[in-house]
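Subject: for your reference before the review

Hello V.,

The reviewers asked for a structural picture of the protein, and I figured it would be easier to keep everything in one thread rather than splitting it across files. Below is the amino acid sequence we used in the manuscript, unchanged from the supplementary table.
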Amino acid sequence: MAAPPRLRAGEVRFFRANRKKDQETAAFIRYTPSMTRPTPLAANNQTAALLPVLAYIQSHLDEDLSLAQLAERAALSPYHFHRLFHDSIGETLKQYTQRLRLERAAFDLKIREATILEIALNGGFHAPETFTRAFKRWFGVTPRQYRVSYGRSLHQQHAAHHTLLNDLATETSCSRLTIQKLKPIPVAFVRNLGPYETVDVTHYDRLIAWANANGLYTGDNLLLGVGHDDPTITAAEKVRFDICLSVPESFQPEGAIGFQTLPGGDFATMSYVGPLDAGFAQVYHYFFQQLAQIKTVELIGLPVIEIYRTTHINPTYALNETDIFVPVQQLAE
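And here is what came back from the structure prediction:
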């Protein structure tokens, strides 16, 4: 496996390599053959009830996520929901939602031009003082200090790296970046917890077999990957990646297989042809470098969606075709 390139401070990235992590695979979303087993959400009838709740939480972080409301969605009593959630996730509901809100805010501080107040509201914090105190407790610095330290680096350029990225784009056939509207996509998914590089791609074959057995496989189903977290912010063991197969209709969760609808809207998109190995990390550098040149849109953040134009994932295949979608919003003129 090729070693990932070293990075310079201030580069556009969703990952960070440093002396302590020189041996780690530096990539935001990528697949490599791995002997490491992933950590999917525990599969039984009770924990299956959490999958739609987890999908709901991640798309409604700016709304009320009370224990009573989410317990009702899971058709459980608040007492049993609390115990089940803590036993399955390893955090209480309050700890989990607070962490996701703060991590979203940290990500926004890194990549968005929005004010700190706007970012706080987007993260579900209704008082800026509450947001600042919670942020400092979690990250050790205030939101303003965090923004200064990590910066909005989308527009920073490095000439030497620019040449590397252009060479990469030529060698691996990255398309021109465009802004497109994506329709909502209903998917069956298995959630992986852990570093992106340890995702077990055989879960895609298992999803296809399951869909075929349940009358949901049409032959036109899409294979997708959805990354919810920035691994430079979220602890490695808590990084969420959804292994997805599009389905024609909704269904009741079954074991470790859940249902969610990926949001539609405006996305920056680029097609990439090449292996999903260590070099795939550089595709994301090139992607965000190109996005920085488009002045009419603003990067919203996560999740990032990858659509694989194949019926079987083989990370080392030289002609893998992957479409990358990153959510954006149109800027007012």
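For the response letter, the relevant points are probably these. DSSP finds eleven helices and ten strands in the chain. Strands lie at 39-40, 178-182, 185-193, 223-227, 240-246, 258-262, 265-273, 297-299, 304-308, 321-330.

Happy to draft the paragraph if you're swamped.

O.
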